[in-house]
């Protein structure tokens, strides 16, 4: 078995392990996004045992983004903010990856939450009247120092992608501090440019390009 085949099998097993847990956890995120804010950061009171102390906020507020917080918004029906602590309470997947960074060859094992599930909870407004309307979707990730990277929705959707992008909460068994995480982990990338550190914003939108007025 080749290394690529082993990675694909590992990603598939991880997706199956978290699928059942996310069926409940995603519902909790949607419920918390509808609840009243009960702390200064706009955190909503949880409404299910699986996330008893989660602090996902009702909406993506205009307040400053705190350490360890990720604001999710754009063309979505339920924008919200999720914290690094919230992510640790959700079903976890694991990815062992190798990539090249500015510091040289990297080899790490990350644990975290599937990006697709976190974004799906915000209910992106894809045009379902179009065939595979979600394939017009894009995701822009913002990290520390206003660093940005963009993904096509198909890259994170398990219905299309062979591997899954993670919002990692730990690296090689060491949990990220609020000031350092979460971090995007992109198993299919050979270079680390889209491994966005100090992740703080995720924007979901669609593109409908027209070239020279044509359709």
Say what the CATH topology is: Sulfite Oxidase, Chain A, domain 2
> Total number of helical segments?
4
Question: Proportion of β residues?
Answer: 25-35%
CATH class: Alpha Beta
Q: Could you give the order of strands across the largest sheet?
A: 2-1-10-5-6
Total strand segments = 10
Organism: Streptomyces venezuelae
Protein name: Oxidoreductase molybdopterin-binding domain-containing protein
InterPro entries: OxRdtase_Mopterin-bd_dom (IPR000572), OxRdtase_Mopterin-bd_sf (IPR036374)
Domain Oxidoreductase molybdopterin-binding: 69-204
Main attributes?
Oxidoreductase molybdopterin-binding domain-containing protein; 215 residues; OxRdtase_Mopterin-bd_dom; alpha+beta; five-stranded mixed sheet; 21% helix; OxRdtase_Mopterin-bd_sf; Sulfite Oxidase, Chain A, domain 2
Write up what this structure looks like:
The chain is an alpha+beta fold and 215 residues long. The chain has one domain: Sulfite Oxidase, Chain A, domain 2 (Alpha-Beta Complex), CATH 3.90.420. Helices cover 21% and strands 27% of the residues. A five-stranded mixed sheet has the order 2-1-10-5-6. A hairpin with a 2-residue loop joins strand 3 and strand 4 (104-114). The longest helix is centred in the first third of the chain and has 30 residues, at 3-32. The termini are far apart. This is Oxidoreductase molybdopterin-binding domain-containing protein. Residues 69-204 form the Oxidoreductase molybdopterin-binding domain. InterPro entries: OxRdtase_Mopterin-bd_dom, OxRdtase_Mopterin-bd_sf.
Helix and strand layout, with pairings?
Blueprint: H1 3-32, E1 69-74, E2 80-83, H2 84-89, E3 93-101, E4 104-114, H3 115-120, E5 137-142, E6 148-152, H4 153-156, E7 166-171, E8 174-175, E9 183-185, E10 201-206
Parallel strand pairs: 1-10
Antiparallel strand pairs: 1-2, 3-4, 4-7, 5-6, 5-10, 7-8, 7-9
Protein name: Oxidoreductase molybdopterin-binding domain-containing protein
InterPro entries: OxRdtase_Mopterin-bd_dom, OxRdtase_Mopterin-bd_sf
Pfam family, one: Oxidored_molyb
């Amino acid at each position: 078995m080749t290394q690529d085949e082993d990675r694909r099998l590992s990603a598939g097993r991880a997706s199956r392990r978290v699928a059942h847990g996310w069926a409940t956890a995603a519902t909790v995120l949607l419920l918390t996004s509808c609840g009243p804010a009960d702390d200064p950061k706009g955190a909503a009171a949880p409404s299910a045992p699986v996330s008893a102390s989660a602090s996902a906020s009702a909406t993506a507020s205009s307040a400053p983004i705190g350490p360890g917080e990720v604001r999710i918004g754009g063309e979505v029906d339920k924008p919200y903010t999720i914290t690094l602590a919230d992510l640790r309470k959700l079903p976890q997947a694991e990815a062992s990856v190798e990539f090249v960074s500015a510091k040289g060859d990297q080899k790490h094992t990350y644990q975290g939450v599937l990006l697709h599930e976190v974004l799906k909870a915000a209910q992106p407004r894809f045009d379902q009247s179009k065939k595979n309307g979600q394939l017009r979707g894009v995701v822009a990730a913002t990290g520390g120092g206003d660093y940005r990277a963009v993904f096509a929705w198909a890259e994170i959707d398990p219905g299309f992608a062979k591997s899954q992008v993670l919002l990692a909460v730990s690296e090689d068994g060491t949990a990220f501090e609020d000031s350092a995480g979460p971090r995007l982990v992109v198993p299919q990338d050979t270079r680390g440019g889209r491994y966005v550190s100090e992740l703080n914003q995720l924007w979901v939108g669609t593109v409908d390009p027209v070239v020279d007025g044509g359709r």
